[in-house]
Amino acid sequence: MTAARTLIDPNTLAQFQAAKQRGEIPDQLTPPEGCALSVQRARRLTPAEWKRGWSDSLELVTEIVQNAHTRDDGTEIGAQLVDRVLDLLAFGLTEFAGTSPDPRRAVREKTELVLNMLWDNVKETIAAGVEEYRGELQRELEGQLAVEREQMTRAADQAQADATEYRRLLDAASAQMIRERTAHADALAALRDQMQRERDAVIVRERAWNEERRQLTADKTAAQDLAASLNRDLDTLTTRLEELTMPAPTALERTSLCLYARTAMSRPDLTQADLPEVPEHVRTAWQAALPTPADQMAQLRAVALPILGRTA
Q1: Which of 145, 200, 262, 296 is most buried as measured by Cβ atoms within 10 A of its Cβ?
Q2: Segments making up each domain of the chain, as ranges
Q3: What is the spatial distance between Cα 176 and Cα 182, in angstroms, rounded to a whole number?
């Protein structure tokens, strides 16, 4: 553009000639690196040769640009830009070489129009790219949501299976405890009956059989020790029954603890199968933070509803 203005603007041309006379511009110009045209050859070229070179170059570039319009690898956007530049050059040549009363104004208006058109095309391209990316992002989010839904389904199924197994173990333990209680009660009843019979016999034979009475007293002491031992065993079994009859964690509690532990332990990959690895202090903190099923359900809704694209 600077060269074109130098040749067209008389004031700029006069300044260029004055600078050359002062020696600020060398007589021997050096072509840029990679240029196939030397200064000597350029001076020998005729106007017809210059026109043919310009025409062949413009024709080849136009052909390449037109072919690039059919691509879809991003170069078609550059082809549109080059195509507009070629149009501007052709328009400028016709304006300056023709009979236009004000070629500068015409070229300037045409250039502004082309720039606005190119900017509109760029905006449309950006909008299309954003829309395509939005679709890819939507598909990716839907895939993640499907994975999370599948994980939650598997977790719920596993929790149901665990609850069923715990219920079976609890029922078996309860039946065993009932049988043991019945056996202990029968043994205690038999022991009481025996002690009563021995006591009656001792009363009848007390005066005559002092030695036997002492023996019976020793038997009584042994029986009391046995009863105390049985009572201690019964207390131990009762404590064990209370431990076994504690309710198993629900699916809601397991899911809530898993989500809480992911954040507390910085373990986003933690699953319900890894809950035995959760430290006791994390469980204690979870129970303090989310003590009720309502708190735990609110926690799950806060995680699940954004994934489902819904609000509370």
Answers
A1: 296
A2: 249-312
A3: 10
